[in-house]
Write the structure tokens for this entry.
Amino acid sequence: MLKTPICELVGIEYPVFQGGMAWIADASLAAAVSEGGGLGIIAAMNAGADWLRGQIAELRKRTSKPFGVNVMLMSPFADEVAAVCAEEKVPVVVTGAGNPGKYMDMWNAAGIKVIPVVASTAMAKLVERRGAAAVIAEGGESGGHVGDLTTMALVPQVCDTVNIPVIAAGGIADGRQMAAAFLLGACGVQVGTRFLVANECTVHQNYKNKILAAKDIDTMVTGKRLGHPVRALKNAYMREYFKNEYSTMSDEELEKFGSGALRRAAVEGDEKGGMFLSGQVASMVTKEQPAAEIIRDLCEGAEKVLGSASTWVR
Ligand code: TUI
């Protein structure tokens, strides 16, 4: 079986993390992934302390296995959710969309394994120095907030830069891609889009249907002008945003146009007015399955490619 240092580090059976998808990754999905032997992650996204406390309590009712909380550093509530993670002594904190430096000492003092998402070697080095337990190197194939580098380019460079375990993310939806990540030096993968259609994922059914119907070229990136590029499925909203981005619309108005779009997609299933974040692998996601089955499929597929020597190479 595919056992790597990350399994031991966070106490999981399979080296598979579930992406902390904003408005999507709640206690229901995270508990199912953790119960299935991976690392389930609750996305604190733009929610406040009370919502997060409630979700952690709900997850702990459903599983006693390790889990994580994703702290989106651009959130206006980042300070308060960071404090909740420390108070609740969550086993793992994953950060995204920025530099988690100012919270690292507090989290490390609480005994939390801090695993930042990085999109560059500089950020990987910086968080290693500040006490990160591992890093997630996320390429721009992923959904949501994206960096410039692809997974293929980023993962080996991060592996060459740090001495802590590296988890690969972005463009990983099956065993072949998981095996490829291992050959690049990663010892685990983080998967978002494929878990979005898990049976236990409570996102609106329209969102799942859009992922299941997507083709390879159906995602696009907007938001570069404001410095926060985001990958999502092409639809009326994304095309309109793109048009506005290259018009004379002010930054304030553009920001206003962007607000609420994730909630409209995930909660209301608003096909025209929502922003359906998705990775480039959406077309490979073809059926709804229990989360535990997704984890098994990924690992069995990777083992088949890697052969009996299934090993982590670095
Ligand atoms: O964070 C993500 N994915 C996200 S966050 C999100 S919520 C959102 N909603 C509306 C607009 C924008 C965001 C949806 N999806 N992934 C982790 C990730 N982190 N990807 C890339 C990075 C990253 C980028 C730059 C991490 C660090 C970094 O450092 C830059 C710096 O120097 O601060």
About this structure: The longest strand covers residues 67-72. The pocket of TUI is lined by residues 22, 72, 96-99, 117-119, 123, 138, 144-147, 228, 230, 262, 277 (CB under 6 Å). The chain has a mean pLDDT of 96.
